[in-house]
């Protein structure tokens, strides 16, 4: 098992690199945010969720 942390910065390049890293792997999402309104984790969650939803529609 490997942990990949995302949403701790606002860099689009970093987020895209992490999405590309996990796109061909099985992965799960666990969002941890103190306030629940922080921009960075919200954006990362949305993008990773979209990727998971795409994988469910087109698993291969």
Automatic annotation (TrEMBL):
Sorted UniProt keywords: Isomerase
Extent of the signal sequence: none
EC code: 5.3.1.9
PROSITE patterns recorded: P_GLUCOSE_ISOMERASE_3 (PS51463)
GO molecular function: carbohydrate derivative binding; glucose-6-phosphate isomerase activity
SUPFAM superfamilies named among the record's database cross-references: SIS domain (SSF53697)
Top enzyme class: isomerase
GO biological process: gluconeogenesis; glycolytic process
Name used for this protein in its record: Glucose-6-phosphate isomerase
Originating organism: Mycoplasmopsis synoviae (Mycoplasma synoviae)
Taxonomic placement: Bacteria, Bacillati, Mycoplasmatota, Mycoplasmoidales, Metamycoplasmataceae
Gene (UniProt): pgi_3
